[in-house]
Specification:
By secondary structure, this protein is α+β, with helices and mostly antiparallel strands. It folds into two domains: about 1-180, Jelly Rolls, CATH 2.60.120; about 275-330, Arc Repressor Mutant, subunit A (Orthogonal Bundle), CATH 1.10.10. Helix content is about 40%, strand content about 25%. The protein has an eight-stranded antiparallel beta sheet with strand order 1-2-4-5-12-7-10-13, with helices on both faces. A hairpin with a 2-residue loop joins strand 4 (about 50-60) and strand 5. The longest helix has 19 residues, at about 270-290. Keywords: DNA-binding, Transcription, Transcription regulation.
């Protein structure tokens, strides 16, 4: 049984899917739909099969938590980057003539080309699978570097997620997975969803070894003042637009890292902090002229891109020395 229902109030790119079946063929069809063309087999003549999944699609990223009650062999033709992280049991991977083993602290990583064979030892088996569309990861890398790249990105076949920045990335993935059960999740807000999407992409690129990592972690030159002015003008022209750092870097025609360094040097804060400051100023202007009998603080906050009312109120008080409700009441 598959339940694929976009949340009514969610952005178009955010879908939640739930699946449960005792039919390997139905399991295969779900893999084909949300991941890749795949073949599914039960080894050793086993006839018992039970699979369930909870999946969330965040634009080009799909995160699925699979639970399997029997050993399963799957072979897939990959056209995206893919990370498999077992929570229980082990996964044996065969790709490009080599075999790898993944467990609760070691993820299996696949590139976007070739055929992969995956044997889930068990039962039971529980794992997180993360699919990242090739174009999305490579575009994120290009934006961070400020230049085109020659893909695919050469991620390693296994990744230790037990400590350091890779553990942080693993926690981000778990955060996204945990939102599956919360219909009121902040991920339903486009601004938050977009920021998390970029964090997952850039986090993987900054924590996994690959041939671009040294360049990514080398301090970048500051964007020139004219480039920073372009970003500032875009922010002031339309602060309600759900800008990401990559969006602003594209406007400025510099890399993400150069934009960040340029803002630090020429503006004195990070690009997203400056965007928040401008939004707070616009929200204050709106509250000052609003009719408090007809307009709410929440409505003004959402209009200017603040998804979480409590955080808006806290940031507002820190900037202006009073709660937004006081500003609204004073407007009459």
């Amino acid at each position: 049984m598959t339940d694929a229902r976009p949340r009514p109030s969610s952005p178009a790119t955010l879908d939640v899917v739930r699946f449960s079946s005792q039919d390997p063929e139905e399991f295969r069809s779900v893999l084909n739909r949300f991941f890749y063309p795949a073949a599914v087999e039960l080894p050793d003549g086993s006839k018992r099969f039970q699979a369930s999944a909870e999946m969330i699609q965040l634009g080009p990223i799909t995160v699925a938590q699979f639970r399997l009650a029997a050993p399963v062999v799957a072979a897939a033709e990959l056209d995206a980057y893919h990370v498999t992280l077992p929570a229980r049991g082990r996964v044996r991977i065969r790709q490009a003539g080599r075999e790898y083993l993944a467990g609760p602290s070691t993820a299996a990583v696949f590139g976007p080309t070739g055929r992969a064979f995956v044997l889930r030892d068990g039962p039971p088996m529980e794992e997180l699978d993360i699919k990242i569309e090739r174009s999305a990861l490579e575009a994120e890398l290009s934006a961070l570097l400020g230049r085109s790249i020659e893909g695919p990105v050469d991620l390693p076949p296994t990744l230790d997620l037990s400590d350091g920045p890779r553990l942080t990335w693993r926690r981000l993935v778990h955060l996204l997975r945990d939102e599956l059960v919360h219909p009121g999740s902040l991920l339903l807000q486009p601004l938050i969803a977009e920021q998390l999407r970029h964090s997952l992409l850039s986090g993987l690129l900054l924590s996994a070894p690959h041939r671009y990592l040294a360049e990514l972690t080398t301090p970048a030159p500051a964007g020139p003042p004219r480039a920073i002015r372009r970003a500032l003008e875009a922010i002031h022209e339309d602060p309600r637009r759900p800008f990401s750092v990559a969006d602003l870097a594209a406007v400025a025609q510099v890399s993400v890292r150069s934009l960040q360094e340029g803002f630090r040097r020429h503006v004195g804060c990070a690009p997203m902090a400056y965007l928040q400051r401008v939004r707070l100023d616009r929200a204050r202007d709106a509250l000052r002229v609003a009719d408090h009998s007809r307009v709410t603080v929440a409505a003004v906050a959402h209009r200017w891109g603040f998804a979480h009312l409590g955080r808006f109120a806290s940031a507002y008080r820190a900037r202006f020395g009073e709660p937004p409700s006081v500003t609204l009441r004073a407007a009459g």
